[in-house]
UniProtKB/TrEMBL annotation:
Domain HTH tetR-type intervals: 22-82
The protein's name in its UniProt record: TetR family transcriptional regulator
Keyword DNA-binding carried by entry: yes
Organism (species): Rugamonas rivuli
GO molecular function: DNA binding
SUPFAM superfamilies for the chain: Homeodomain-like (SSF46689), Tetracyclin repressor-like, C-terminal domain (SSF48498)
A UniProt-annotated Pfam family: TetR_N
Example of a GO biological process term: negative regulation of DNA-templated transcription
PANTHER family: HTH-TYPE TRANSCRIPTIONAL REPRESSOR SCO4008, TRANSCRIPTIONAL REPRESSOR
DNA-binding region, residue range(s): 45-64
Keywords: DNA-binding
Organism taxonomic ancestry: Bacteria, Pseudomonadati, Pseudomonadota, Betaproteobacteria, Burkholderiales
Amino acid sequence: MPTAKLNAEPAPKIKRRVLNRDKLEADIAAEAVRVFAECGYEGTSIATVAENAGLSKQNLMYYFPTKQALYQRVLDEVLDEWLERMENLAAEDQDPRDVLRTYIQAKLRFSREQPWASRVYAMEVISGAQLYGAQIQSRVVPLLRKDIEVFEKWISAGKVAPINATHLLFAIWAMTQSYADFSAQMALVLNRKQLTKKDFDDAEQVIVDMVLSAISVRQPACGDAP
């Protein structure tokens, strides 16, 4: 029927507009990450982000009406990436060593591939998480508790040594994220302009060895009492 056909025709155009908008918002957020990381929230201006993205300030504000809305989008994307890795960590049916090795690898890969995003998140937390604390509490805490429950099951099953899982995860976060947040200092100490892939590979080996050693179940020696 003609009416049905007329009603159906705009759908592809609408879909294209949605896709184009999604891509443009992603491009704006990608530019904003670097500016927020370099200048901090207070030092960042919408005008600077717009100029870097090749847009007018008015055009950018059509997609992100306020600086806080843009900042929220940037941090949401960082947190989405991290939470995905935390969800994979809570795989109680797998070998804990394989799960932790994969988790560490993923965290270091994020630090290497998206250092600006890591720094924006770190700066927000260091400043007291005034603008993003509620999201961190509502989204990170439940997953952290879930991961801790998995560790407790592994400990009960004798798969890992008794350990404070919360502080183990804190230590993993600190070790892996430092390769983004403090990469400039590390590069200076290593006397080069920036960290190399080999540096990240070496870091992975050291961190994995330390973590797996911490969770290893000690085998009883011959003279130990049963």
